[in-house]
Amino acid sequence: MRESATGSFMAQAVTQYSVLYESLRSRRTRPIVPTGLDRMVGLARVRLGGLRQGRQYLLSQAEQACLLTPEYRNTSDAALRVKLSEMREAFARQREGEEQLRHALAMLREVARRETGEEPYPVQLMAALALYHGRIVEMLTGEGKTLTGSLAAALVAWRRRRLHVLTVNDYLAQRDAESRAGLYRWCGLSCGAIVQATGGAERFEIYSRSIVYGSPKQIVADWLRDQLKLGGVQSPWQARAAGEGGPFGTSRKGELPMVPGLHAALVDEADAVLIDEGVVPLIIARSRREDDMSQVYREAVGFANKLDEGNDYVIDHVRKRCMLKERGEERLVGIFGAGVAGGQSPLWKATRRGHELVRQALVAKHCYLLGQQYAIVDGKVVIVDEYTGRFLADRSWEHGLHQAVEAKESVEVTADRETLARQSFQRFFRTYPFLCGMTGTSADATPEIEGVYGRSVVRVPTHRPLIRTQEPLQVFRTQRDKWSAIVDNIERVHNAGRPVLVGTRSIASSELLSTLLTQRNLPHQVLNANHDKEEAQIIVGAGKGRNGAVPAAITVATNMAGRGTDIKLDSHAREAGGLHVVLTELHGALRIDRQFIGRAGRQGDPGSAAIFVSLEDEICRKFIRWPANVLRQRSKDANLSSVPGIARLMRFAQQRSEARDRRNRMAVLKQDDWIDKHLPGVG
Amino acid sequence: MSERNTFSPFWHRVRLIKPRLRPHVQVVRQRSRGTRWYVVTDPSSNAYFRISAQAYGFVGMLDGTRTVEEAWNHCLLTQGDDSLTQNDVVNVLSQLHGGNLLQGDIAPETEQLLRRGRERLKKKVFQQAVGVMYFKVPLLNPNRWLAGIEPIFRPVLSRAGLIAWCVLVGAALLALLPHWREAIASVSAAIAPSNWIFIMVSYVLLKLWHELGHAVMTKRFGGQVPEFGAMMLVLLPSPYVDASSAWNFKDKWQRVAVGAGGMMFELFAASLAAFVWIATKDDQGAISQLAFNIMLTSGVSTLIFNANPLMRFDGYYMLSDAIEVPNLMTRSQNLLKFLFQKHVYRVENPTPPTSDAGEALILLVFGIAALIYRVLIFVSITLYVLGLFFGLGLVLAIWTGAMWFLMPAGSLTKWLASSPQLHDKRARAVGLTLAMASCVLLLVGAVPFKERRRAQGVVESAQRSAGFVTFDGVLATAHVRPGDRVRKGDPIVTIESLPLEAALDLTQAQLGQARARESVAATQHPASQQIAAQYVDAMEQTLSLVKTRLQERTLVAAHDGVVVGQDFAQRIGSSVKAGEMLFEVIDDTQLRVAAVLPQDQADWVNVAASMAAAGSDAEGARTPLRIEARRMSNVDAIVELSPSKVPVAARRDLPHAAMAFSGGGSFATDAQAGQQMGEDRVAKSNVFNAYFEAKASSDATTRVLGMPGERVTLRLTLPRRPLLAQWIDRIEKTLQGRAKV
What we know:
A: Rossmann fold; 21 strands; globular
């Protein structure tokens, strides 16, 4: 009795020690993005590495593995399990060679067949092998990334003990963890999913499993909370000295860190996670209750409305900034004076702070628009994610911007929040000693992935040829012309009995299109952040073709439908010609367009895509303002698609947008590195 | 103003820490141009930071018990609009932390510390690499030794000492004044190649003394001198001391004094040397030579380097301290950048390096002066080093050129390509830059400019003849005196030769005898008559030969001209030998110029050669080369020349002693090679000996050129060519010329 108590105490101590040790070890890794010559050398090394294990090598290995599969076809379940555990040993001891790898792939292929009924294609094995070698794999949409990922996950988990598989959202994490658990059990691995709803104790337990599925948000947040928890602790013994509960309880509350170190990560939709969302920092914040500033924000909106754009201030729409001109500053002095005299907050005596608040109010007024950057739900301002089109509940803009928007919308101004810890995904993922990922299109992001993360990108050929037709780019003079052309296009395809998926960039434009379609009596579904409850149901229905009297589906969706959504076609739809995707605007990056278009023509299905642009679109206004203006004024036609070079011009605008985003990301990266170099600390 | 944001995204990292300055850190208040500053110093690591009064107000609040946030909030209350923003706080803290001046609960991560160390080393190596012309090697810590030696100097380093120093230097200057010409004359002897080693030695010794001056001055006002080392300053080894602890002297004049210490010591030495030189200069001994060297080196290095505020030597730091504008160089460059950004690129709200109008003016003036100076010094240092060590010099020149010109160009390109400041003006900015660059390129590459070269020449006569003695004899008569003008055929000297006259008599007698024999033979021995007749013929021939010889007794002028020569009139009655040259007749109306052209000027030598070959046929055609000569003793008169004889291949012999270094010319001679080749004037490198004639020969041109032997300067104006072509040509020629050596 006593003995077992001691034993369990010891076991507990060992667990706690190891969790603490691993967590602290990971936190000491402070990656710095190389610059200048170092960066060039690093890039060259990555590319050379990519050449050494190039596509040909990977493909031939995968094909050889396929040839080995018959060896295991007739092996009994029990014998296969034994072989797998031997293999696992070899990997754990890092004794795996090319030969072993091929056999492991062959075995996994067989296991996948027995467990899920899907037998991976050679290209999938090739992708899995590339992932195992720490590469970013570019596979066309709909080529079975989930299966590929699970094969690679097993190999990586064998080799590196713990693996985090990062999925786009909680739903996918849950789904994949459940559907793949069987396969992992074969391999002697445990797996679990971290979702929003997972409780504390359960979370702790799941993190100790070999393979953990989760969305980046969940894992980064847990990691950051750990960092706060650990505070300045440097070693497990230090934690023990300061701790209260348990042999290795941590300093503050005797709690252990949640995440037992960062070992390896497999990122699904790597371009989105690593690049697009890479610089958006995840912030752990709490409300600051000390002072009530709500009145001040409202007053700032009032003051801001008194200024004239152009004369008193200029708005920089690209960088979302506002600059006060001299006249504006002079006027503000008077306005502040009158305000203070009129019984408004004494804060306005401080000119610098006052200017800042007014500038912020102006930015909120001009750069943040309802239905685009945010929506109002239950009297609260909710941010809409630019890339996924989803609501970001519980997130808020920093440094009073959120409050300024709230004041503008005359909803209740929430308390300022103060940041406790923040980390960008980019930094977080660079902390993993091993990183691999899958992406549908990496395109312009390739050099960045290679430069920042030091991973080379490898393209995996498609298993079945792609039969999607792409209609030429349609350019219109005005928004109005564009929308009517879009509706025409939708009607035409709809009448052919094919399902249509329309992509819009903002909630507002999806609502606009919905009204236009209603006017034409076209039955349709709207999928945006406001309707996210019905998402699964809408997606299921989105692939339906005309079935007798039941018309084909029309789905108007924001970017929510852009990633990870698998629209299954029914037989009617396939016969009629598959899904037709309409993009109503160009996105900020070619990749995102391609992702959305990738909803059509999946796994060898037929499909088509069309893109409609107008010279009044945001991207034209921001990036090719001058040529767009000239074109708009000079030409009489509504449809400018035949103007020579117009497609190239549009692509140029998109490239400028890509370049701007890239620069922003580099700036954030530099800032992150700077602070880490100069003021080491946590978070 | 409008750009400063109160909040920093990194606030959470610093907000809760409770740092304080390390206890041994010293803080000194300084005042510059009416603003208060605080210098935070760590005496153990010699790290210095200058922070503003507001920042100090904040840092002062940090006592290890307050959090950063509390201190900041307090500052907000007390300082209002002037207080630091969160970003400022993060910056100040990171700076102090980087300098290891903070203690507290900032995680001292080993990895981080190591990385910082590595980066510092990398930066140091990089700086060394960039400044190969200023290479530093620390040697030892002289602090303790200086502490012992400083009291010796203490009585002198005072107000009275300064006055005494002024008197001494003034007296030395006054004493030198009467000997100024001699001093200038001695310079050329002092910088002769044979003296270089002495110059070097006295230079190094003087610089040691100079550095002692800085060090002692620093100690005098309570500073530390933790480092002494050697530095390669433009390939000259020089010592240096680290006197940076003067940064935290409160009184700016003390800082100025530390800067001036070196020069004061050096000029002190120079003054003493001046007195020694004046006293001993007449006996030309080693002492006077040494004294002169000291005087020269210290005088020149003080004037050119140390006192010059445009280079980062003593003068610069003194100026910076005296006018209370710290970091003058960087900030003046920033000001120029700022002005350029604002007015040329029209960037919105660029950050000005200063908000003080007076300071801005100082920075502007200094910035422009330093820029011009930098270009000048680059060119001259490069040329100097190229002259000394060709290969090394070339590498250095390319390297420094890259560092000084390509790097700024690179960062400009980067700025143009990616600076967010230009986000909506990029096209304009790029266009503007391209326009400016193409203007410069056009100016350099397409607009033709006159090109002028200089060469040394010596006036010679085109027609000269020597009077050689043909037989041994005695100089009997001089018909003219040296310097007299003669016409063609005029007798000049007559030489008498007794043996020759005797031979005449003898031959005449023998002829008589032979004739007699012949007549006898004709009558008595017809058989021998023929023999006798032949003998007469032979005798007649001999006689005519002797007569011709005797006619040559009188040497005549071969052409019109002036007789020059050793004073033959003095030698009347003395004997002369056959082959001796007694005089020369020089035609001073037909003068020509012999010039020596170094090989790197081969380009126009070729032009001149073709002109010479074409001869006067080319007359009237537009000559590609205009050559003018002016006499050194009369620089106002100019005569135009045309090439008469220009070799296509270079040789090593100099046509005239006046061309050689020893004769006051600019060509170094090689005595050894001279002996081997049997020539007395052999240049060290190949040269072209070219001859030029006056275009219009007249009395006027003769007057301009003066007498043969006169030294002239040739100015050659080449046809207009773009500058770029000129430069490329010159570099090519230089390379060719050097490569052969």
